[in-house]
Amino acid sequence: MSKARDPVLMFVALLLFWVLLNGSLASDVLIVGALAAAVISLIFRNGLGFFSELRLTPRALFTTVLYLGFFAKELVKANLTLARIVLASSLPINPGIVKVKTRLKSKMGRLMLANSITLTPGTLTVEMQGEWLYIHWVTVDSADVDAATAAIVGGFEQYLEVMYG
Fold first, then answer.
1. CA nearest 40: which of 63, 13, 67, 19?
2. Full-model pTM
């Protein structure tokens, strides 16, 4: 991809994000979004790491939609699980920090994984060191790296691998 196209792609991505956040195609919303996207694209014309690592293929874009659906499902499931734990009189928790391994190669893919884990109630990414993530887990089912990786990371990773590599 040529360096001249990077700011254009960033502008388009920022404008789309703006429209999604506002949920409107009104002219005033589009004008403000276009101005903000243009300023940001000019300031960061050498690129932003996460835009340069995002794969802009039809498969990756379709996978992004699937990822958002998967994340929403996991968010609801984790909230219900955590609510059940909190409402139980015995408070069945087994907190601890587990070490999980990711196969994601891109920095942005790893960051998205860490944030997805943190945004899901009951888990919190404490530290990232290369391919290793240290996760505080409210209900540690297994301290085994492979089992913890499958339980916490597996679902997110299959989508993020297509999106970022």
1. 13
2. 0.69
